[in-house]
Write a structure and sequence with these properties.
The complex is a heterodimer of chains A (about 220) and B (about 525).
Chain A lengths: L1 H7 L14 H5 L1 H6 L6 H9 L8 H6 L6 H4 L6 H11 L22 H4 L6 E4 L2 H6 L1 H15 L2 E2 L24 H9 L6 E4 L5 H7 L4 E3 H8 L1
Parallel strand pairs in A: 1-2, 1-3, 3-4
Helix pairs in contact in A: 11-12
Chain B lengths: L39 H10 L8 H5 L15 E4 L3 H14 L3 E4 L15 E4 L6 E5 L4 E5 L4 H9 L3 E3 L10 H7 L6 H4 L6 E7 L5 E5 L4 H7 L8 E11 L3 E8 L2 H13 L5 E8 L2 E8 L2 H10 L9 H14 L4 H18 L5 E2 L2 E2 L2 H13 L8 E5 L3 H15 L3 E9 L20 E9 L8 H18 L14 H5 L1 H14 L12
Parallel strand pairs in B: 1-3, 2-3
Antiparallel strand pairs in B: 4-5, 5-9, 6-9, 7-8, 7-9, 10-12, 10-14, 11-12, 11-16, 13-14, 15-17, 16-17
Classes of the chains: A mainly alpha (about 220), B alpha+beta (about 525).
Chain lengths: ~220, ~525
Amino acid sequence: MRLAIRRGALPVADYAACSGCALCLLVCPIWRQTRDIELTPLGFSKALQHGATVAEVAGVAEWCSLCGACAPVCPERIDLVGMLGSLRRQLQLAANEIQPAGAMAGEPLVAQSAVRRRLSRGDLLVIEPHSYHADYERRVKLYDELRRESGCMLNLDLQRIAIPARLPAPAALAGAYDDLAQARWIVQGYAIERIVVEDPADRSVFERLGPWPVISVNQLAEEAC
Amino acid sequence: MGNLDTANLGVPGVCPVGADSLLGIRRQQTNPSRWNGVTWREFAATVRECGIELREAQTTRGIFATDAGGTAYGLPHGVVVARSAVQIADLLKTAQTHRVPVTVRGGGLTTEGESVAFGGVLLDMTGMSRVIAVDALALQVRTEAGIFWHALAEELRRHDLDYLSAPLNLTSSVGGTLGVGGIDVNSARLGCSADQALALQVVTPTGEIVECSDTQNAELFRRVILGYGQFGVITEATLKIRPYTPLRMHYFHYDSLRVAIEDLQLLDRNDASDYSGILTIMDCAVNLLVAFDTPQREAAFKAEWLARLRGHGEVGFALCLLRRYALRPWKIAEAWYLWRRKRELFPELQRPEYMRDSTMFDRSVVFSRAVWKFWGGRQMVIPDLATSAGKFVDAVERGNAVCRKYFPRYTLYCVGIKLRPDHREHYEMSCIPADAEGWAYGCEFEPLVGSAVYSRDHFQSFKNAIYDVGVDLGASYYRFGGMMKGYIRRAFGDALVDRHLALKHQADPAMILNRDVIF
């Protein structure tokens, strides 16, 4: 384990603690697209446990969108996002280029009561996953309350992890990742009247999917002012 | 060979079940020897000619070096990610020709090394994990068999549907579960997970793609269900499903295992609940979980059965424990452990985002996350005993005594399994004991290892002691393959084992498929 760290100067993150439960795999959008364990946090951690060098796990780093879905579900509390972010930096892949423009710092707009009042049953609120997962314990409660109050639908899976509508496309993903398939999965089975996106960049995907009107939370906030 | 020929079995041939299965010989850990790789190069070349991607990098193979048990280690020569039944058929045909072992892996949640490849090819079935069709009217789903139960639940929920029963672990695969049984807290009512399978697509060890069910290629169906992967690779499954319902959950607390089990069996016999099971924190802190799909069933339970249960509510049980430890002040460390465990565990089972109006949503997520958080670890040994209803209290009490001898902290998990008389032949040489009528009962004995370090010999001695109880009682086991296969002849008898061995030789002439799991 330490050998791999010395050879590749990997960050000291406890990938050694991975017990292989695969809960991270269930929520990984790359897994959903590829069904390939090698490209998931589980594959990454296990490969490192077996002596992989930075170069040998470069594929995972290139594919990962750092959406952060794996971190809240890891029972060993491994800093998967931190590990993959560091790896991207070492590989001189621009970690920042895959952060969505809409990634929100601080409190989300839906925390404002004026915005919440504008959401109703029939709305599908598409949560921006990066900020949601980074502040999971608090936000899972916030959005659960929002769902109870307004009756709106959310892009959360059964583990209450946000399903990304769109993955910013690093080189390896270009052409391999199907945004529309992902968006289709988000809306599947719901009786939707309107789609409200937190990340304005998600609008285009849902507009292509149709037939629902798509607005952003920013617009709701402007209406509320 | 769409079906197995049970009339012309011939001689069983060489028996790979360990010699240490014989009575009077001390049983040792039976890790199989690594396949020597003599035909690997030719095999790899032929597989690639078929257009199959074969991964041989050390880091790829390392991903699959162990299973959830974390005590068996082995590396395959190469890994194939399953993509289609045709691809698997080509792989198995080539493997038969070159006599290369093929180990099939779903979620990798075995604990005795059953999904660890000791050389040869590891076939990663999670590559085939998509839902093919949901029929909401007929209440059936057709799915690829490498799918995790969680992923299946996600798809079914979009239709307001649910599977019947599945292990309390989201990362078990459907194919793997159907191959061994699968138990849930509703198994006392709905049977084991394997009983919900209506039809399967199977790739036989010789590479034929066969559809089988109780009416089509029935012998193959019977052997593949609960067959520990010996007779084919399940590639697709048609499962019975049901409308989704959240749970109305109740916990009753006992300080006696015997009383809790008697109450569990009372509920099961009388169909008094939809879900029931026992989970212990210690043998003096036993939780009986009882739950319902509808308010009507819950009301009927309260009217007729609640008063007959001898367990306590939370406050009542706290008072019992106070009295217990007031009289035994030298056991204060035990009391502290109980309090701490309860304080950590119970809130996790009642997280507000999963509770609404006193009902629990997504129980499989709640339990599965708790399982990994509170019982998971890098090493897990979970020996078990499966008996008829009448022998169960004795089996659990004796198994509990073994646990006390070997580990300071451990958990027992007990459930009933409703048996289907029409599936009696499915249960042959499986975890379902031959003498069980109506219900079988299973108990898992799991030491809480935490950060402690135990040798493999310590674990193995513990498992042997539990399994010896089973031999004495005439029980069966859920985990009798892999490292525990030394018990197979003692548990099932020579006649039955020889019959299955002959069937195995017939179905898998080079004995390549899941070698050393059973045969």
